[in-house]
């Protein structure tokens, strides 16, 4: 990840891209500084301190690098593939509009879907800390899988950019209560990508909300969250229920086709396999860190 960080910073410095929101610089710089303290703690065998600092910062650094990489790749992405994604859905017997009509007919489900979808952020922040406390030997396999999923998503994205079902089907903003009320990003995938392709914007802070339609990273992350939380006894079933809800919520709250969701789940499973089975990616076992001992969970 250090090489990834240096490469991205070099490209960013040499490109026309900027970030007008100064807080992005401060947040990224602070996370890198704290991660550096973690590396120093590991150097002096303070393994528990090192793991805690890594848990708090490394996933965030990787996510920021991935988001910035995706924004840059959007400028060279191909044509929108909504037609192809809808065709795949049809082959699987799925019609996104049926789910949308269900939400319209049962508006009480919208807040549940929105809550489930937004649970991604607290899990992203807190699950690594929980692993550090109760299953320290699982932290770096989880982080490795998470980074692998980010890289796979970024690599696929420019070949499968899409506008999303709300725009493709001409569904106006506001027709579904509570969807996109505060920030209607679900309606702007295509607009932002087109602006980047035409060079109409170089400010990454204006499109930081997300551009990826296929594959669904929320679905990939939900699979990783289920896998990681399964190792902590009291999080096992809550983690399963919450993250199944995340996957189901991606259709409307995340504006995803079924093909997006299935591809995201596949990336999650592939990332777990890579982190646990590919020798070059496997993290040392607990015996390599004698100062670590998981607490009861």
Given helix and strand content, the structural type is mainly alpha
What's the helical proportion of residues? 55-70%
Characterize the overall form. Answer: globular
Strand content: under 5%
Pfam family, one: PAP2_3
Organism: Sphingobium indicum (strain DSM 16412 / CCM 7286 / MTCC 6364 / B90A)
Protein name: Inositolphosphotransferase Aur1/Ipt1 domain-containing protein
Keywords: Membrane, Transmembrane, Transmembrane helix
Walk me through the structure.
- This protein is an all-alpha fold.
- It has one domain.
- It contains 13 helices and no strands.
- Helix 2 packs antiparallel against helix 3 and helix 8 crosses helix 13.
Features:
single chain, 297 residues, mainly alpha, 64% helix
Task: Please write out the topology.
Layout: H1 2-14, H2 22-43, H3 47-74, H4 82-91, H5 96-105, H6 109-118, H7 120-134, H8 136-156, H9 165-168, H10 189-197, H11 217-229, H12 236-249, H13 258-277
Helix pairs in contact: 2-3, 3-7, 3-8, 6-12, 7-8, 7-11, 8-11, 8-13, 11-12, 11-13
Short description:
The chain is mainly α and 297 residues long.
């Amino acid at each position: 990840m250090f090489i990834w960080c240096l490469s991205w910073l070099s490209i960013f410095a040499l490109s026309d891209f900027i970030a007008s929101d100064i807080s992005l610089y401060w947040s990224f710089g602070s996370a890198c500084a704290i991660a550096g303290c973690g590396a120093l703690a590991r150097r002096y065998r303070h393994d528990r301190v090192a793991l805690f600092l890594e848990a708090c910062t490394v996933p965030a650094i990787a996510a920021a690098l991935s988001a910035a990489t995706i924004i840059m790749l959007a400028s060279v992405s191909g044509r929108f593939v909504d037609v192809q994604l809808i065709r795949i859905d049809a082959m699987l017997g799925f019609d996104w509009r049926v789910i949308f009509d269900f939400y319209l007919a049962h508006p009480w489900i919208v807040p549940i879907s929105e809550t489930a979808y937004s649970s991604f952020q607290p899990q992203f922040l807190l699950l690594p800390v929980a692993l550090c406390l109760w299953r320290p030997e699982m932290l770096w396999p989880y982080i490795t899988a998470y980074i692998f999923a980010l890289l796979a998503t970024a690599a696929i994205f420019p070949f499968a950019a899409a506008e999303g079902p709300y725009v493709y089907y001409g569904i106006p903003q506001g027709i579904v209560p509570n969807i996109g009320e505060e920030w209607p990003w679900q309606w702007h995938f295509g607009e932002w990508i087109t602006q980047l392709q035409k060079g109409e914007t170089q400010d990454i802070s204006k499109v930081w909300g997300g551009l990826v339609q296929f594959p669904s990273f929320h679905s990939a992350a939900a699979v990783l969250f289920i896998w990681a939380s399964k190792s902590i006894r009291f999080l096992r079933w809550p983690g399963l229920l919450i993250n199944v809800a995340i996957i189901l919520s991606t259709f409307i709250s995340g504006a995803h086709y079924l093909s997006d969701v299935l591809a995201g789940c596949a990336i999650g499973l592939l990332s777990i396999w890579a982190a646990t089975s590919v020798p070059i990616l496997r993290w040392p076992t607990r015996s390599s860190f004698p100062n670590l001992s998981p607490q009861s969970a």
